[in-house]
Task: inverse folding
């Protein structure tokens, strides 16, 4: 997902290194510092859960594609089967994201195909997966006064 | 020259009298323009003002003239619009386009992250919030300044125009494939809403956090008119109620009042009825539009060299929360 954790951390460096003009001191600077603190909190969550979320999502998509491949003909069938046979072997965030981008593009194509053929069962399965994907990647905001 | 010196030079030239700028301070205020508060001081006295200046890069491409005219459309009409004073589209001494508004002192904008932002005045704020929104919808268009800049859509085209624009933003700025918002866009196209009973001014970003309240139940000013346009007034109602602005499980719209009470207040103030099917369409659209903004925010943050942390927060935490909302809505619509 974008931004990536390295992006966020690089952004912290940029934001904390650059001096603010005099007119941006005061409330604006305080608000900006609060945002940077919040980003650091979310970065901690992403460091803890982000790898597992990507691995889970990539695996869940491959399972979906494996089941769906039997129901489709032609080019999509072959792409689904090939993707279903894949595996994650590079566990860096950037590699997991690259693979995830390919899998998500195929998911979009599969969902469009399911809608076009009126396959309510597959449509619902994909919608349920969307919910699980969003939940797996959530960032938790603690209550603030 | 500092910004304060350039602003003083501009005011001195245009007012024809020496004008000094004091207490210039940047504040948070809308994501598409830099916002500053300042005092303009002349021999005749001191005036509290707000400067809204285009940034070098922007979260949302919006028309500053349209925003200026939208604010001017509602001054003195009971919807708490601040005074719109001057617009400089070529930037003059400030190098970038800007406009100046009257400043409303003594109010505060709620944090979008606060759990109970209005405390024991929540009901009063909520009723006023939906009453003002109904007032915006009820305002006759004839002669309104905003009609000089905002095209008036045919009622049948309101949904398509908005969906075309915001889906275009999402798909153009997408940096990682976004299957959830794409599914929502397709769903919206398959089942469009009925046309509105009438075309009205749509604020475009009417929500908790975009108004000043006095801490005692009164709303002092409605802010951030930068996405104002003419269209279906239900668009604003749906946007104001997007779950993003509320804490999960709270049961109130943005910590104010329950949904049904808000809608009843809006109906009374607008004189309009609510088609629940149309409202459901605009509610899903609101989440698509919001996600388009967050996707665009992530791109702007990266393109801008990671300089503005608010863009990172919008493009990361907020985008992920919006995905949860979209996924829940899609599944609920499928079940319904």
Result:
């Amino acid at each position: 997902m974008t931004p990536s954790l390295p992006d966020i951390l690089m952004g912290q460096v940029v934001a904390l290194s650059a001096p603010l003009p005099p007119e941006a001191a005061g409330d604006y600077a305080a608000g900006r510092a609060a945002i940077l603190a919040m980003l650091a909190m979310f970065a901690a969550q992403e460091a803890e859960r982000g790898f597992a979320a990507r691995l889970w999502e990539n695996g869940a998509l491959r399972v979906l594609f494996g089941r769906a491949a039997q129901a489709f003909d032609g080019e999509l069938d072959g792409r689904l089967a090939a993707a279903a046979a894949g595996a994650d072997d590079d566990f860096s965030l950037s590699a997991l994201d690259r693979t995830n981008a390919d899998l998500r593009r195929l998911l979009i194509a599969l969902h469009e195909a399911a809608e076009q053929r009126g396959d309510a069962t597959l449509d619902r399965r994909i919608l349920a997966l969307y919910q699980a994907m969003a939940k797996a990647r959530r960032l938790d905001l603690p209550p603030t006064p | 020259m500092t910004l304060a010196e350039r602003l003083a030079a501009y005011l001195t030239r245009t007012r024809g009298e020496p004008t000094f700028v004091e207490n210039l301070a940047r504040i948070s205020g809308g994501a598409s323009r830099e916002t500053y508060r300042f005092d303009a001081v002349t021999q005749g006295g001191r005036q509290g003002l707000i400067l809204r200046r285009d940034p070098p890069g922007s979260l949302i491409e919006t028309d500053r003239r349209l925003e200026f005219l939208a604010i001017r459309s509602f001054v003195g009409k009971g919807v708490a619009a601040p005074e719109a004073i001057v617009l400089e589209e070529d930037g003059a001494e400030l190098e970038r386009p800007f406009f100046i508004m009257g400043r409303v002192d003594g109010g505060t904008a709620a944090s979008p992250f606060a759990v109970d932002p209005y405390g024991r005045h929540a009901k009063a704020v909520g009723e006023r919030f939906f009453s003002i929104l109904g007032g915006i919808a009820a305002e006759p268009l004839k002669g309104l300044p905003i009609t000089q800049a905002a095209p008036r859509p045919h009622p049948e085209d309101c949904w398509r125009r908005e969906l075309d624009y915001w889906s275009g933003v999402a798909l153009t700025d997408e940096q990682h494939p976004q299957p959830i918002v794409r599914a929502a866009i397709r769903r919206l196209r398959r089942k469009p809403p009925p046309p509105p009973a009438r075309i009205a001014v749509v604020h475009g970003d009417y929500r908790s956090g975009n108004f000043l309240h006095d801490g005692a139940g009164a709303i002092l000013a409605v802010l951030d008119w930068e996405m104002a346009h003419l269209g279906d007034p239900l668009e604003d109602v749906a946007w104001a109620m997007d779950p993003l602005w509320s804490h999960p499980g709270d049961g109130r719209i943005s910590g104010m009042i329950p949904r049904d009470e808000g809608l009843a207040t809006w109906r009374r103030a607008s004189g309009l009825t609510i088609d629940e099917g149309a409202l459901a369409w605009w509610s899903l659209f609101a989440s698509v539009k919001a996600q388009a903004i967050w996707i665009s925010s992530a791109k702007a943050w990266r393109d801008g060299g990671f300089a503005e942390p608010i863009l990172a927060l919008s493009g990361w935490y907020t985008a992920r929360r919006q995905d949860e909302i979209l996924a829940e809505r899609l599944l609920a619509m499928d079940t319904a």
Summary: Chain A touches chain B through 52 residues (CB under 8 Å).
